[in-house]
Design goal:
- It is built from 4 helices and 8 strands, in the order H-H-H-E-E-E-E-E-E-E-E-H.
- The protein is α+β, with helices and mostly antiparallel strands and 163 residues long.
- It has one domain: Golgi alpha-mannosidase II (Immunoglobulin-like), CATH 2.60.40.
- The strands form 2 sheets. A 6-stranded antiparallel beta sheet has the order 1-2-3-8-5-6, with no helix packed on it. A two-stranded antiparallel ribbon has the order 4-7.
- Strand 5 and strand 6 form a beta hairpin.
């Protein structure tokens, strides 16, 4: 389920159930897993307008859609060594839960910005690490206040099923 959450905030959302069916979890083998995958695919699809702008940016500048935080916040030395979270364009910070059994998770938010927790709407000043609730279905994702895509991000949070 955490893999599906991560993939919802990447350019290509897919599972690997077909390449080794005897070893990999089959999405349709568990109703809860399948329902979660459906919910995350809806988030992924809802992000399509944002992703389209990232694709245009990539074509013009060569910047990847999914990228290390230091690429956009090189002036914030705290971003330089972060390997467990990423920017999805400049307007989203994604900090996937990568440890089993966790329901809270920490994320560093780049300095010089105010960040909005996607699911709760809570605002956080950048330049520090914050800890947020991270139940299954609500991975730690933050959007940059002032983003031209704010309405899209707010709509995604409103329409998402609650755990």
């Amino acid at each position: 389920m955490r893999w599906s959450e991560l993939c919802a905030f990447t350019p290509v959302m897919r599972s690997h159930e077909g390449n080794r069916p005897d070893e990999n979890l089959q999405l349709d083998g568990d109703p809860a897993v399948l329902a979660h995958f459906v919910a995350m695919t809806r988030v992924h699809a809802a992000l399509a307008p944002y992703v389209a702008t990232l694709v245009d940016e990539a074509a013009e500048t060569g910047l990847p859609l999914q990228r290390p935080l230091f690429l956009d916040w090189e002036g914030d030395p705290a971003t330089w060594g972060i390997e467990t979270q990423f920017g999805y364009g400049r307007d989203l910070v994604v900090a996937p839960v990568i440890e089993a059994g966790m329901s809270r998770w920490s994320a560093y938010l780049p300095a010089g910005e105010t960040w909005v927790h996607l699911w709760s709407g809570e605002r956080h000043e950048g330049g520090r690490t914050v800890e947020v609730e991270a139940p299954i279905g609500q991975p730690p994702v933050f959007w940059r206040q002032g983003s031209p895509h704010a309405a899209l991000f707010e709509r995604i949070a409103q329409e998402a099923p609650r755990p």
